[in-house]
Amino acid sequence: MLPSISSTQFLLFYLILLFVPSRTVAYRWQICSTRGGNFTDNSTYESNLNLLLSSLVSNGSGSGFSTGTVGRIPNRVQGLVLCRGDTNATTCGSCLSNGAVDIRQICAYYKDAVVWYDECLIRFSNLQFLSTFDNEPTVALVNYDLKDEVDRFNKVVNELLSSTADWAAYNSTKRYATGQAFNVTQAVPTIYGLAQCTPDMSTSDCRQCLEGVLQGLPQGRMGARNQGVRCNVRFETGPFYEGNPIIRLLSPLTNATTPAENATTPASAPTSPPAVGTTGKEGKTKKTTIAISISAVSAILLISIFCAWYRRSRKRAAKSPYQTDSEQATQVIESLLFRLPTLRVATVNFAEANKLGEGGFGAVYKGLLPDGRVIAVKRLLNSGQGLGELKNELLLVAKLQHRNLVKLLGVCLEEETMIVYEYVPNASLDKFLFDAARGKQLTWGIRYKIICGIARGLLYLHEESQLKIIHRDLKASNILLDADMNPKISDFGLAKLFDIDQTQGTTNRVMGTFGYMAPEYVMRGKFSIKSDVFSFGVLVLEILTGRKSNDSYNPEVTEVLLSYTWEKWQDGSASEIVDPALGGHYQQSDLLRCVQIGLLCVQENPSDRPTMSTIVVMLNSETVSLRAPSQPAFYVGNGDRVVTMSVNQVSMSEQESR
C-alpha cells in the first residue's frame, strides 16, 4: 500500500489545484506505473486503449460501473471505471469523460495507470487484473490532525465505517453505503462516512476488500480516505456525498445504530459459517491462537470449545459498545470457516483425479464451490507437525492482499484440518523451471516478469503491508503461477510476524530448505528481511540458469550454483549460465543486470545485500547504477573456501507446495 501523505502535502495539493485549470472536480490523484512499460504514438496499443476508454465511458456513464478488454497480448489492454454510488448519470458521465482525457495526458505513454476523482475512478493496464479482485494500487490521503478526544473520535469512526462497510457488502446490490454519526465530540459533533466496492464483487469478497482498506485508513485525522481500484472507504467531518445517509449512528456511547430516514434496517453480517465459506477478515486482531488436532475426538472438542467461546463473546458484545480483541478474533475465525460437506462436494469427495500434488504436510486437491470459485484444498496429515505453521498461515495470509501473494480463503476444522486457497492453474515455478520440456514455455519475458513479481510481493511483505513479515521459506516450489504466468508467493507456514520497528530475530530451531537459506540463519539461527533477500537472490539465479541451487539437498554440500555463477561473472562470461531452454532469445543487458542483482542478494554479510525496495528500483530502471558484487556466501571454488553446516536442530523442507 502506498504511504499516506502528510496534512501539509495534502493542503498544498489542494492549493495547487486551485490555480491549475482542470476539466474535472478539484480532487484528483493518479498513479502512473512503470511496471507495464510504455507505448508509442500510433501504436496498436494506443489504438486499443482509445477504443477501450471510449467503450468504458459510454457503458459506465449510465450504470456507474464497467469493465472491458481490447486486443491480444502483447497489445491487450484491460480497463475498469467506477462512479461513486450517489452520482447521477450526468455527473458520472462528465467525470468519466473528462477523466478519460486527463489520464491520457497525466500518464502519457504509460501502459498501466489509474486516476481517482471524488466522483469516479478510471484504471487501465496491459496486465491482466480483471480476473481477480485485487485492490492494488491503493492510495491513502488524510486531512488535518485531530487535537482533542482522539480515542473516542477514532472509536466512533471505526464503528461507523464498519457498519457502513457491512451494509455495502451485505445489503446493497450496488455495493455502496453511506453513514453518519452524531454527537461524536464537542469539537466534532458529526462524522460522515462512505464505503463502496465494485458491484461485480460477491458479498464476502467485498467485505474482505473493505476490511483491507479499513486497516490502512489513517487514524486521528479530521478526515481520511483509502481507495483502491476495487473498493474504498472515506470519512469526513463535513458532508461529501449526496442524499441522506443509509447508516445513522445515533449514540455511539450506547452503540445505537439505526437506519436513516426511509431506509430499512440493515441485516447483520452472517453469524454462522455459510455453506461455501466467506473470506472476510478482521485486521485489528493482534494475536489469535487456534489450537488444532487432526483427530476426530480433538476436532469435536475444539469445535465445542469454540462454540462456547463464541456464545460468551456474543454476550459480552451485547453489553459493550465496542469489540474486544477476543471478540474480533471470534469473527475472524467465523469468517474463515468452511464446512466439510461443502469441500467434499467441491472436490468430488477428494477424488484422485482432482489431486494437484502431495507434500510434507499433506495432499492438495482442486475443487469447485457452488458460487463458481475454483479452489485448492490442502488436507493436513494426521501429525503434530505443521500445526504452528497452520496457525501462521491463518493469521498472516488472511491479513494480506497483493497480486503477488496467494489468497487464503478459509479453513475447515471438521474431522480433519484443511486449508482452502484460491486455485492457481499453472502450479508452481519449479514444475516449469527444472523440467527440460516445460522450461521452454518460460520465455525471457515471462522469466523477467516472474522475477519482478516476486520482488514486488516481498517488498509488500517487508515494507508496504500493515504487518512486517519475513517469509523464511522462499523457494521455487513456493512460487505459484496463475493463468498469465504471474507469480504468487505461497506457503506462509514458517513466516515470522514482526513489529514495525523490529528488524531481526533469532531461533534455536532453523526451519527451511537448504540451498535457499542465508548463512547467518543456517549457522546461527539469525533471520531478518535480508534472509528473504538471500533466498530471492538464489531464486533469481535459478530462474536465469534453470539449475537447482542444490540438487542433492545434502546439508553437508554447499550451494554450487552460487559458485558457478560467481566464477562465470568473474571471467566475464556470465551469459554462459543462461538456461539452454531460452534458445538464446533474451536481452543481454537485462540478463547481466539480473545476474548482478542475484549476486548482490547472496552476499555473505546481510548488510551488503540490498533491500527489496532497492531491488525493485534496480529491476525497473536501467539508469540506476549497480555496485559490483563480492564473493557470495557458500563459495566453493579452486580450493579457496568450503563452508560446512551443522545440522543440529535444523529441519529441512522438501515438501511440494500449493
Quick overview:
34% of the residues lie in helices and 20% in strands. By secondary structure, it is an alpha+beta fold. Helix 2 runs antiparallel to helix 3 (89-106) and helix 4 (150-170) runs antiparallel to helix 5.
Helix content: 25-40%
Determine the number of helices (DSSP H or I, runs of at least 4 residues).
Answer: 16
Q: How far is the N terminus from the C terminus?
A: 25 Å
CATH class of the largest domain: Mainly Alpha
Shape: globular
Share in β-strands:
15-25%
Query: Spans with pLDDT under 50 lasting ≥5 residues?
Result: 1-26, 251-326, 498-503, 552-559, 638-658
The major β-sheet equals: 7 strands, mixed
CATH hierarchy: architecture of the largest domain: Orthogonal Bundle
Description:
The strands form 7 sheets. Strands 6-9-10-8-7-11-12 form a 7-stranded mixed β-sheet. A 5-stranded antiparallel β-sheet has the order 1-4-5-3-2, with helices on one face. It has a 5-stranded antiparallel β-sheet with strand order 13-14-15-17-16, with helices on both faces. The protein contains 16 helices and 25 strands. Helix 2 (about 45-65) packs antiparallel against helix 3 and helix 4 runs antiparallel to helix 5. The chain has about 650 residues and is α+β, with helices and mostly antiparallel strands. A hairpin with a 5-residue loop joins strand 19 and strand 20.
